[in-house]
Amino acid sequence: MNAQLKSDLENARQCLLDTYNLALTFGGPDTQDVESYLNLAADLSVISEQFKRHEASLELAKETRTMKEFVDEYKRQQQNLEKKKCNAKNTSEFKNFRQQLMQMKSLQDEASASGRGASRVECDEFVMESEINVYDPITKQRMANPVKNTLCGHHYEKCYILEAISVNKRLRCPVAGCGNKQFVQQQHLVDDNLFKVRLQKLAEQQESEEEE
């Protein structure tokens, strides 16, 4: 798939997740409707699938010799692909989006059911691990948009780790003492929106304590 389109679709999904996070914190029931976000994510998956089919048809049509043959072959390939039913909700992109969305909802439901006391315990747990997880290991700044290395589980600030691996293709996990010997690669990095929400809650708790 075209790199720019892929990036745009990923950004659109991230915007949906960020919007849902804001809705959970500040919005009402109408802005917290899970199905509306899932339907929008499904629409993005449809766009992705349509473009993949377009590219596949173009590749096969390129083998023709004349412009007319090219157009005819492209249309024929499109018609063949349209016969194959596309279920956007079965794509890996949609399933990953849904999982992250439901994790955020579950965390919010738990906090609402347990009340402030439970939130305090949750924040305390994160304070205990904040020496490792709250701060980006590269810049030592508090993370705002974390990604997780699926090979070792460590978190980094997204923009900094992507910049680092673009400069150094042989970069290993920058967390001190990490036993992962493989080089950090972009395909091993995933957005961790559940962790992002928890970081935000911890920051809010600390701000509230400072004001008191």
TrEMBL record:
<comment type="similarity">
    <text>Belongs to the NSE2 family.</text>
</comment>
<keyword id="KW-0436">Ligase</keyword>
<dbReference type="Pfam" id="PF11789">
    <property type="entry name" value="zf-Nse"/>
</dbReference>
<keyword id="KW-0175">Coiled coil</keyword>
<dbReference type="GO" id="GO:0005634">
    <property type="term" value="C:nucleus"/>
</dbReference>
<keyword id="KW-0833">Ubl conjugation pathway</keyword>
<dbReference type="GO" id="GO:0016874">
    <property type="term" value="F:ligase activity"/>
</dbReference>
<dbReference type="GO" id="GO:0016925">
    <property type="term" value="P:protein sumoylation"/>
</dbReference>
<dbReference type="GO" id="GO:0030915">
    <property type="term" value="C:Smc5-Smc6 complex"/>
</dbReference>
<keyword id="KW-0863">Zinc-finger</keyword>
<dbReference type="GO" id="GO:0008270">
    <property type="term" value="F:zinc ion binding"/>
</dbReference>
<protein>
    <recommendedName>
        <fullName>E3 SUMO-protein ligase NSE2</fullName>
    </recommendedName>
</protein>
<dbReference type="InterPro" id="IPR004181">
    <property type="entry name" value="Znf_MIZ"/>
</dbReference>
<comment type="pathway">
    <text>Protein modification; protein sumoylation.</text>
</comment>
<keyword id="KW-0539">Nucleus</keyword>
<feature type="coiled-coil region">
    <location>
        <begin position="60"/>
        <end position="87"/>
    </location>
</feature>
<keyword id="KW-0808">Transferase</keyword>
<dbReference type="GO" id="GO:0000724">
    <property type="term" value="P:double-strand break repair via homologous recombination"/>
</dbReference>
<keyword id="KW-0479">Metal-binding</keyword>
<dbReference type="GO" id="GO:0061665">
    <property type="term" value="F:SUMO ligase activity"/>
</dbReference>
<dbReference type="InterPro" id="IPR013083">
    <property type="entry name" value="Znf_RING/FYVE/PHD"/>
</dbReference>
<dbReference type="InterPro" id="IPR026846">
    <property type="entry name" value="Nse2(Mms21)"/>
</dbReference>
<feature type="domain" description="SP-RING-type">
    <location>
        <begin position="121"/>
        <end position="204"/>
    </location>
</feature>
<keyword id="KW-0862">Zinc</keyword>
